[in-house]
Amino acid sequence: MEPIRTIRSRTVVIPRTNIDTDQIIPARFLTTTTREGLGEHLFADWRYDAAGRPVGEFVLNRPETAGCRILVAGRNLGCGSSREHAPWALYDYGFRAVVSTEIADIFRSNALKNGLVPVIVDEASHAALLAQPGAVVSIDLERSILTLPDGREVRFPIEPFARYCLLNGVDETSYLLSKQPTIDAYERRIKA
Amino acid sequence: MSARTLFDKLWQSHEVVPETADTPAVLYVDLHLTHEVTSPQAFAALRARGLGVRRPELTVATLDHSTPTDHDQLFGKVPIRMESAARQIHEFENNCAEFGIELLGLTHAQRGIVHIIGPELGLTQPGKTIVCGDSHTSTHGAFGALAFGIGTTEVGHVLATQCLLQRRPKTLAVNVEGELGRGVTAKDLVLAIIHELGVGGGTGSVIEYRGSTIERLSMEQRMTVCNMSIEAGARAGLIAPDETTYAYLEGRPRVPRGAAFERALAAWRTLPSDPGAQFDKEITIAAAGIAPMITYGTNPGMSVPITGTVPVRSGDGVHAKALEYMGLKAGQPMLGQKVEFVFLGSCTNARLSDLREAARVLGGHKVAAGVRFIVVPGSQQIKREAEAEGLDRVFIDAGAEWRESGCSMCLGMNGDTVTRGAYCVSTSNRNFEGRQGVGARTLLASPITATASAIAGRIADPRGYLS
């Protein structure tokens, strides 16, 4: 995985609360057996109409959002299904961070493992972000700081080990594999 | 030692490496369940790194999510209609064979929905840690097991190391006291709990359901409750094991027998939360105040008693958007809303007791003209047991479709979908936009409410159909 230190980008705002992973990537696209190419289907049922034509008013279909890497969403982003296809789709589309006041547990865990930084901010900062779609925001992962468009700095919580892995491009599998002797000892202990 | 909760005991006994400020705990996994949809990329990752499966005998695989419920497709008499699903199924068969994992495959007599077959076979036991790449893994918590859904990267972690990196969640006690009313089922109870907590109310927490109402529930009812813990955002749901649990498990194929069962039983009896154990948060709900419930919106927290009306919330954009999607008006009664589909199935409500209760409501009635009623047993064993009792005939004679087991119309991955704009009373767990098909309008309810609605062709109160 590529190390991530800072993300600076204009934001895309989808203010809806409780955006579930079925919206991020509908189940009919989950028969894939790879993790690439899901960006095409990101928010498919909001992005395209019944005939497969882009829905003009949906934010991702507006030309000014092209290339944006930070998604600001309403409270409780990523609830529902555990499908890791949701962060895969967001990453494949080009997003590198998601910002909300609450992010669902499994989605947050999955995002951290795929180079998609989940940023949880307070209500006031969130309101400021929702009010200014397209404003430039920067995220400094090393300092766990999000800088709002007005220059105000907001510290965000992030699990320290996941942050270490993101900063250094380390994957958690290698860390777990390094614990094999301890796992061996645990298995001997429970068998006894 | 201070008083510990059931969760504390489960967590501590599975810590291979305790958590620190800098690193999460390494938590041991006793049972890993897997299916065709959330595992292919995990097997690919193993292959790419040249890794094997550490303890293949602790993983059990089944086919359910994208698997056909049509008999001829399932048993290979005709090709599987969805080509991408067929490819995914065959790749899964190959992965299981290559890595030495037991697969309850397409034609296996014990195949079924992953969260139905774990308990059915007795793989699910008190005191275990159980994970699966599926959020409804919380179902297994009904046995006093710490069970939760994981992502595909984590599926790879479990395959390679039998462990996961986890931060300790908070604990939330949901106390339910008193008797459930006539026609009020475990599904109504959990919908009421989710309504109370909100769809994000359980985030970061493991719920322990407690109290006299919970203690009186059967194992099947407890599974329905724990199943939907994730719909309140909770990491897992738990119910302390008791005599009901032990009676359910004894004699099941994967449960130890004789002296080994007695030893297991002695260990299981130590699991319930100690008197005085502290939870991070507690709420109490009176069972008597709960009515048969139905959802009107696009998340499982948006529910009302079935005799209620669609809530009026002027100025609430999310509410307005949900009603627009659902084609419902604020203030309209739920009863009498016309429906086109009824789905009886899913890991929430496709067990034998659900089918029996539905069949009892059906009695000699017919499914209303213009309603497609699809009945999908949770496993092939449930299907056989139901057929032995003649339940299949009750459904078929009434005009319903009787299918092979699988996830089916809960998430519409296998081609079983609700048509655009149609209403479906569903016994499944999610009413998200498009969940049952593009533009599908899902109304979550209990098996008896679903069946009553199939007869009426409209949302109906099941209490009018109980003798």
The main β sheet of chain A shows up as: 7 strands, mixed
Instruction: Kindly state the percentage of residues in helix of chain A.
Output: 25-40%
- Mean pLDDT level of chain A: 97
Task: For the largest sheet of chain A, list the strands in their spatial order.
Answer: 4-3-2-1-5-6-7
Largest interface: A-B, 50 and 65 residues
> Any guess at the CATH architecture of the largest domain in chain B?
2-Layer Sandwich
Task: Describe the structure using short key phrases.
heterodimer, A: 192 residues, alpha/beta, Aconitase, domain 4, seven-stranded mixed sheet, 8 helices, 7 strands, globular, B: 467 residues, Aconitase, domain 3, Aconitase, Domain 2, five-stranded parallel sheet, 16% strand
Topology, pairings included?
The complex is a heterodimer of chains A (192) and B (467).
Chain A: E1 6-14, H1 21-24, H2 44-47, E2 70-73, H3 85-93, E3 97-100, H4 105-112, E4 117-120, H5 123-131, E5 136-140, E6 145-147, E7 153-155, H6 160-168, H7 172-178, H8 180-191
Parallel strand pairs in A: 1-2, 2-3, 3-4
Antiparallel strand pairs in A: 1-5, 5-6, 6-7
Chain B: H1 6-12, E1 15-17, E2 25-28, E3 31-34, H2 40-49, E4 59-62, H3 71-74, H4 83-99, E5 102-104, H5 114-121, E6 129-132, E7 146-149, H6 152-161, E8 163-166, E9 170-177, H7 186-197, E10 205-210, H8 212-216, H9 219-227, E11 236-238, H10 243-249, H11 258-268, E12 281-286, E13 293-295, E14 303-305, H12 317-326, E15 341-344, H13 352-362, E16 372-375, H14 380-388, H15 391-398, E17 401-402, E18 423-426, E19 441-444, H16 447-456
Parallel strand pairs in B: 3-4, 3-6, 4-5, 6-7, 9-10, 9-12, 10-11, 15-16, 15-18, 16-17, 18-19
Antiparallel strand pairs in B: 1-2, 2-8, 13-14
Task: Put the structure in a nutshell.
The complex is a heterodimer of chains A (192) and B (467). Chain A contains eight helices and seven strands. Chain A has helices spanning 21-24, 44-47, 85-93, 105-112, 123-131, 160-168, 172-178, 180-191, and strands at 6-14, 70-73, 97-100, 117-120, 136-140, 145-147, 153-155.
